[in-house]
């Protein structure tokens, strides 16, 4: 990824927060890399190098700054300046795709060769996939050291290190200090009890928090999800263990409260929350792309921080989308709640959403679901579709649409929210056609070509501008 040195220099000298995470500054004389907003005295330009990602700076042998904390930046937008393959690979890495399998397996899931994937990563991010994954793990571990009082064995486990020895080695290599020495530099850490964690998840402002909450609240599954007093809550289940999360708005960050018994799942929980609330988005780039569009321009200027609501669990979202076909948003939520109460396991006074194994054999017609949709849900539950990410979205969409009862609209909606595809677009949606004054799906698809690669954001802006909820589930 080529960086314009003159622009980077101006951003560095003004400490412009809009560039935080877009690139990193490496200082040759100290062998340290920083964020553009680092409060340390500015080095001479001849002593500075610029890198497109933290992993690229780490690959070049630089250590993270302990003052500006690169791990606390909002992160490099997943698709800004990268190929679609790299963007999807990053999402799979976020889901720990390299923890058990290597680059060969990751490349196979993406439908490319491993050498080609490495070359793409070096070209776009400045570092190979393994370095990117290790940098992300190390940054997450540093975040836990700074923001919690968890013991190091649990931090190593949560960040995906195979052993405490490996954890200590990587930290000495990356930071030049042991984890214990780094923790002693922190004057005050929030206390946390076993199984309870509170973390800050930064984002790029602006952020239309209230609009996103209203979207989620209208579609919340009773007993599983709720939105009250500006806080989103839901039950979660991973690896056979159950817990819950609470998410609220902080200063340029979301405040995440996690109650979960297995520390080693914390990294995955955090990444799922990032995807649920679309924290990787770059509102400035999206607004710039739509600013002069006759249909979207005024809508984007009105709500420049609008995000695409994601999903905690792709299978759950897909069920919700199927139930929402041709009925109101409220009606689909009611049906989802009935299914959760009938077949989900209790968790305190709330409910866990039932697994695909349970729904594959459940007589959900008894909950008021039509026979046709019940058959679609059972077929989906019995399929071997994976839900963490759409490594090959075209293939995934084709497989979804082979299931009777799932058409292009539903498949695109699932891709948009469950797979986090920024360019998914349910062109058959009646609300979108009405908002754009298009007469049919074909006409809308043609018009939407100019909105690539962010058609998902175009859809959410158009939906937000229309109060009628027909076709918006």
Provide key terms for this protein.
single chain, 473 residues, alpha+beta, 5-stranded antiparallel sheet, 4-stranded mixed sheet, 23 helices, globular, disordered C terminus
Q: Explain this structure to me?
A:
- The protein is built from 23 helices and 11 strands.
- The chain has 473 residues and is of the alpha+beta class.
- A 5-stranded antiparallel β-sheet has the order 5-9-8-7-6. A 4-stranded mixed β-sheet has the order 3-1-2-4. It has a two-stranded antiparallel sheet with strand order 10-11.
- Helix 15 (314-323) crosses helix 16 and helix 15 (314-323) runs antiparallel to helix 20.
- The longest helix has 19 residues, at 129-147.
**Mean pLDDT score, rounded?**
90
Radius of gyration: 22 Å
- How many individual helices? 23
User: What is the 3D form?
Assistant: globular
How would you sum up this structure in a few lines?
45% of the residues lie in helices and 11% in strands. The protein has 473 residues and is of the alpha+beta class.
List the helices and strands and how they pair.
Blueprint: H1 5-14, E1 24-27, E2 32-34, E3 48-51, H2 54-59, E4 63-64, H3 84-94, H4 97-100, H5 103-110, H6 114-125, H7 129-147, H8 152-158, H9 164-175, H10 179-184, E5 196-202, H11 209-218, E6 225-228, E7 231-238, E8 241-249, E9 253-259, H12 266-276, H13 283-290, H14 297-302, H15 314-323, H16 329-343, E10 346-347, E11 350-351, H17 356-359, H18 371-382, H19 393-401, H20 408-417, H21 430-436, H22 441-448, H23 455-464
Parallel strand pairs: 2-4
Antiparallel strand pairs: 1-2, 1-3, 5-9, 6-7, 7-8, 8-9, 10-11
Helix pairs in contact: 3-7, 5-6, 15-16, 15-18, 15-20, 19-20
């Amino acid at each position: 990824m080529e960086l314009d040195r003159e622009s980077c220099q101006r951003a560095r000298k003004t400490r412009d927060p809009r560039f935080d995470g877009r690139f990193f500054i490496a200082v040759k004389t100290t062998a340290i890399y920083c964020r553009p907003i680092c409060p340390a005295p500015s080095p001479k330009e001849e002593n500075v190098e610029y890198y497109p990602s933290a992993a690229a700076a780490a690959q070049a042998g630089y250590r993270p700054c302990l003052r500006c904390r690169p791990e606390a930046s909002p992160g490099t937008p997943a698709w800004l300046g990268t190929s679609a393959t790299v963007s999807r690979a990053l999402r799979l890495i976020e889901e720990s795709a390299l923890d058990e399998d290597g680059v060969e397996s990751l490349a196979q899931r993406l439908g490319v060769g491993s050498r080609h994937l490495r070359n793409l990563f070096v070209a776009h991010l400045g570092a190979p996939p393994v370095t990117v994954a290790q940098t992300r793990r190390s940054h997450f571990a540093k975040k836990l050291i700074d923001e919690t009082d968890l013991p190091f064995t649990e931090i190593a486990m949560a960040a995906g290190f195979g052993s405490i020895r490996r954890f200590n080695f990587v930290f000495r290599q990356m930071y030049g200090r042991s984890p214990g020495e780094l923790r002693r530099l922190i004057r005050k850490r929030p206390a946390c009890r076993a199984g309870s964690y509170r973390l800050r998840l930064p984002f790029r402002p602006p952020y239309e928090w209230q609009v996103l909450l209203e979207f989620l609240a209208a579609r919340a599954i009773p007993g599983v999800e709720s939105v009250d007093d500006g806080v989103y809550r839901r039950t979660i289940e991973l690896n056979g263990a159950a817990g819950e999360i609470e998410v609220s708005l902080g200063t340029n960050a979301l405040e995440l409260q996690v109650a979960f018994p297995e520390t080693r799942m914390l990294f995955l929980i955090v990444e799922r929350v990032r995807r649920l609330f679309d924290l990787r988005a770059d509102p400035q780039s999206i607004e710039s792309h739509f600013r002069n569009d006759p249909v979207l321009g005024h809508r984007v200027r009105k709500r420049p921080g609008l995000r695409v609501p994601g999903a905690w669990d792709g299978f759950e979202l897909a069920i919700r989308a199927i139930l929402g076909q041709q009925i109101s948003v409220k009606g689909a939520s009611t049906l989802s709640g009935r299914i959760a109460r009938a077949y989900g396991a209790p968790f305190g006074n709330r409910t866990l959403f039932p697994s695909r194994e349970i729904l594959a054999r459940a007589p959900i017609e008894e909950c008021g679901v039509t026979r046709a949709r019940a058959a679609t849900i059972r077929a989906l539950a019995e399929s071997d579709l994976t839900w963490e990410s759409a490594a090959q979205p075209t293939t995934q969409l084709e497989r979804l649409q082979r299931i009777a009862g799932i058409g292009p609209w539903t498949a695109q909606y699932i891709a948009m929210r469950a797979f986090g595809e920024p360019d998914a677009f349910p062109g058959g949606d009646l609300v979108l056609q009405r908002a754009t004054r298009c007469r049919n799906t074909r006409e809308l698809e043609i018009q939407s070509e100019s909105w690539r690669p962010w058609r998902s954001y175009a859809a959410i802006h158009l939906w937000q501008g229309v109060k009628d909820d027909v076709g918006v589930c």
